[in-house]
Specification:
The chain is α/β, with parallel strands linked by helices. It has two domains: about 1-105 and about 280-375, 3-Layer(aba) Sandwich (Isopropylmalate Dehydrogenase), CATH 3.40.718; about 120-265, 3-Layer(aba) Sandwich (Isopropylmalate Dehydrogenase). Helices cover about 40% and strands about 20% of the residues. Helix 1 packs across helix 10. The protein is globular, with a radius of gyration of 21 Å. The protein starts with 5 loop residues before the first strand and ends with a helix. 3-isopropylmalic acid (IPM) binds near residues 78, 92 and 252. 3-isopropylmalic acid binds near residues 78, 92, 96, 97 and 252.
């Protein structure tokens, strides 16, 4: 019997977004045709393209489409074309940040794992990457300095000044810390909470509140680091981290650092959740307008984002695992997109990479399909 239909609201956005989203459609087709899923996708605009078509980065039709869906799959937003707009009208603020706030996606998971096959791409020394690393950045996504009020640019006499507010309530810190501890307990991981409690009041409350939550999870090892030290430790020995728990701004910065040391930002997915566990999934890398429409973007981060969606929003971890395995097999066989290729003459295109992963996923079905489906009820 065919499974109940699940709807994914697909928001391709700008830059390489639409190209890499196209590759996920190939995967979804295989999931429907072979893995007994019944996924229907519906596309909506967000970001720059939405500004061009509707005059706003997050049109009402996009919001209502997302509300009706089981999950959101997003490409990327922004590009130089919209840089002339005032900050609050730009695709990032009027599209992506508004969407995060609208759906209250306070919890952002960004896994940064070093692929064994791609060890040589990491900018870190071999002695360091040899130990491997697998870091899960858990970033608070709807609070802190991104959204804190007041913010603005004003004039006093003839001098302009600008200000933003880093603000966290105990409730917001507890909410994200609880999730980090639940994941850590379940997966037997340790937590490093990162703040600037030697300077910032908001960090003092952050640290105290994380300590309070930690009492409920005595089996989870917890350490605190100041953000400057953490930035250094991540490049000196990333293997010391399992879960990094941190605020919106520190998480933005440190998750890029974690991504960079894996060798390519084109490989990293992310997932964001609200309290009802409704999820949005997007690559951690940006819209990369410099390589837009050249058929060279790496679609793996987008496909891994789909895989996280299948795992968390559709509750099919075995099928997600099969997708991840297909990606690993493709990499093991030596296929590389431009960003992860050593040989700049000989690489596979965006579309070829999507086709390869699709073929390997069909092979995986032929080998293990019955097993995967029956275990993923
Ligand atoms: C990210 C991005 C966004 C952020 C931008 C595009 C607003 O850098 O998702 O990390 O700062 O959160
Ligand atoms: Mn960022």
């Amino acid at each position: 019997m065919k499974k109940k239909q699940k709807i994914i609201a697909v928001l391709p956005g700008d830059g390489i977004g639409p190209e890499v989203i196209n590759e996920t459609y190939k995967i979804i087709k295989v999931l429907n045709n072979y893995f007994n899923l019944n996924i229907k996708t519906k596309e909506y605009h967000i970001g720059g393209i939405a500004i061009d078509k509707f005059g706003t980065g997050l049109p009402e039709i996009t919001i209502s489409g997302c509300k009706k869906a089981n999950a959101i799959l997003l490409g990327s937003v922004g590009g130089p074309k919209w840089n002339f707009l005032p900050l609050n009208k730009q695709p990032e603020r009027s599209g992506l940040l508004k969407l995060r706030k609208k759906f209250n996606f306070f919890c952002n998971l960004r896994p940064a794992k070093l692929h064994i096959e791609l060890q040589n791409l990491s900018p870190l020394k071999k002695e360091i990457t040899l130990k491997g690393f697998n870091i899960l950045c858990i970033r608070e996504l709807t609070g802190g300095i991104y959204f804190g009020k007041p913010k603005g640019i004003k004039k006093n006499k003839n001098e302009k000044y600008a200000f933003d507010t880093e603000i966290y309530s105990e409730f917001e810190i507890k909410r994200i810390a609880n999730i980090a501890f639940e994941i850590a307990q379940k997966k037997k991981l340790k937590i490093t909470s990162i703040d600037k409690a030697n300077v910032l009041e908001s960090s003092v409350l952050w640290r105290r509140t994380v300590e309070k939550i930690a009492k409920k999870f005595p089996s989870v090892p917890l350490k605190h680091l100041y953000v400057d030290n953490a930035a250094m430790q991540i490049i000196k020995d990333p293997s010391q981290f399992d879960i990094i728990l941190t605020s919106n701004l520190f998480g933005d910065i440190l998750s890029d650092e974690c991504a960079a040391i894996t060798g390519s930002i084109g490989m990293l997915p992310s997932a964001s959740f609200n309290e009802k566990k409704f999820g949005m999934y997007e690559p951690a890398g940006g819209s990369a307008p410099d390589i837009q429409n050249k058929n060279v973007a790496n679609p793996i981060a987008q496909i891994l984002s789909l895989s996280m969606l299948i795992e968390y929003s559709l509750n099919k971890p075995k099928i997600a695992f099969a997708i991840n395995k297909s990606i690993n097999e493709v990499l093991k066989k030596g296929y590389r997109t431009l960003d992860i290729s050593n040989n700049k003459e000989n690489f596979v295109t965006t579309k070829e990479m999507g086709n390869l992963i699709t073929e390997f996923l069909i092979k995986e079905y032929e080998k293990n399909g019955k097993n995967i489906i029956s275990k993923d009820i």
